[in-house]
Amino acid sequence: MILGIADHPSFKTQLNEFLTFASNLKVEVVELRLDRLELLLSLNATRQDKTRIVSVLKNHDFRWFVHAPSIGINLASLNPILRKASEEAVMKAVRFAAEICAELVVTHVGRLSRDYPQEYIEKSLENAIDSLKRINSFCKDLGVVFTIENDHKAKDHVLAGNAEQTKYLVEKIGCKLTFDVGHANTFGKPEEFAEQLREHILNIHLHDNDGFEDSHLPLGKGKINFHEVIKGLEATLTCH
Asked: Which H or E run contains 20?
């Protein structure tokens, strides 16, 4: 396994500061979260501004992964306008990933709002799959590996929460999985989740929680048995 570090919207640092922090940790992989405002705005920036961002990244010798925007994004939305905008945002993230020679893109599947009855889940799921298939095809065209990330429990209807849901989606889309251990822990034992999805896992997010809330705690500060999780993932390629 290769250790890396993933950016997160809660980090109160500038992009350069985060990258310097990653350099000091001597990690090989950095996953850029495009919810970071500086990167998010660059998706619609002028060529000059985008070149500046790319030059900042190229000053660092990392293998890059890209996490598409997820805040305000919902590929499973029943609203066709919002869904189209969400898909376009993820497509732009894929194009950005190709521009910086990133190896992998991560995206969330989306959810059905809790304000809708459960009878709408099937339609919401169809929407998500339709968009995710197009995004996966675009990734293949640009030579970037596409992964979806399993979700955590929420008040909304979650479409990629437990192992069965997630496996169905990965196989339906034909993509790989970014396995979020903390998210899986809100549905049950993450080691059991990993066992069912092991052949699809390419990237791993590690953080801890108490099993009830996706609190992104440091390892050892929650209740996840990481020894059992890691032991069951010896064949996985990348871990961060």
From this structure: helix 15-25
